[in-house]
């Protein structure tokens, strides 16, 4: 025990000499900093203009675009569902999921582009039907081709008014060129 007391005493003396030999810390001086005043000018409010319809700005008919793509995805899904009997199930499910997700998202977009209440309800029906098909595909159940065909025919009948207008415009253009 006596030995331990001597060792501790020696260490304390050594530590004290180290502390005394260290240079003292410099004292920090208080510095006064002046912050310049900044004048902020608030601009006058800008007159808000009525937003233009996207079609007017871009020249794209988003309703037509969405219906065209919806019909295309429904057609591809219908074909894949028909071929599912002769193809590996995993491949068909993966491909059908891709097309059915696109159907689901295009129908969601179509809700906003619908020209009337009937078309909006059709888009909502397609949206819920596609969501149901996605859930079935996730558990390995392939929808029947008729489910896709039913939706495709309904949307195609909606698109015929668009195709007729395009046909009329082409006929008018051809008549002007002939004159």
Structure notes:
The structure is a single chain. The protein is an all-alpha fold and 179 residues long. It has a domain at 54-178: Four Helix Bundle (Hemerythrin (Met), subunit A) (Up-down Bundle), CATH 1.20.120. It is 72% helix and 0% strand. The chain is built from six helices and no strands. It has helices spanning 2-21, 54-58, 62-83, 89-113, 117-138, 145-178. The longest helix is centred in the C-terminal third of the chain and has 34 residues, at 145-178. It is elongated, with a radius of gyration of 38 Å. The model has no long low-confidence stretch (mean pLDDT 79).
Brief sketch in words of this structure:
The chain is an all-alpha fold and 179 residues long. It has a domain of 125 residues: Up-down Bundle (Four Helix Bundle (Hemerythrin (Met), subunit A)), CATH 1.20.120. It has six helices and no strands.
Strand and helix layout:
Elements: H1 2-21, H2 54-58, H3 62-83, H4 89-113, H5 117-138, H6 145-178
Helix pairs in contact: 3-4, 3-6, 4-5
Characterize the main sheet.
Answer: none
Give the DSSP E fraction (strand runs of 2 or more residues): under 5%
**DSSP helical segment count:** 6
CATH topology tier name of one domain: Four Helix Bundle (Hemerythrin (Met), subunit A)
Provide the helix percentage: over 70%
| Architecture per CATH nomenclature, i.e. the level-2 architecture of one domain | Up-down Bundle
N- to C-terminal distance: 123 Å
Shape summary: elongated
Structural class: mainly alpha
**Average residue pLDDT:** 79
Q: Write the element-wise H/E pattern from the N-terminal end onward.
A: HHHHHH
Number of strands: 0
CATH class of one domain: Mainly Alpha
Poorly predicted tracts of residues: none
Cα gyration radius (Å): 38 Å
């Amino acid at each position: 025990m006596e030995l331990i007391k001597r060792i501790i005493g020696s260490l304390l003396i050594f530590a004290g000499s180290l502390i005394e030999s260290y240079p003292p810390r410099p004292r920090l001086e208080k510095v006064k900093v002046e912050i310049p005043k900044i004048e902020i000018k608030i601009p006058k409010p800008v007159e808000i203009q009525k937003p233009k319809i996207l079609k007017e700005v871009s020249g794209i008919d988003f309703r037509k675009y969405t219906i065209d793509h919806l019909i295309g995805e429904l057609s591809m899904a219908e074909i894949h569902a028909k071929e599912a009997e002769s193809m590996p199930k995993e491949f068909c499910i993966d491909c059908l999921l891709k097309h059915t997700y696109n159907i689901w998202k295009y129908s969601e977009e179509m809700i906003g582009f619908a020209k009337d209440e009937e078309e909006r309800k059709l888009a909502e029906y397609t949206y819920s039907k596609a969501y149901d098909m996605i859930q079935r595909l996730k558990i390995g159940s392939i929808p029947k081709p008729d489910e896709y065909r039913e939706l495709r025919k309904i949307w195609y009948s909606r698109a015929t008014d668009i195709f007729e207008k395009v046909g009329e415009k082409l006929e008018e253009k051809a008549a002007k060129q002939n004159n």
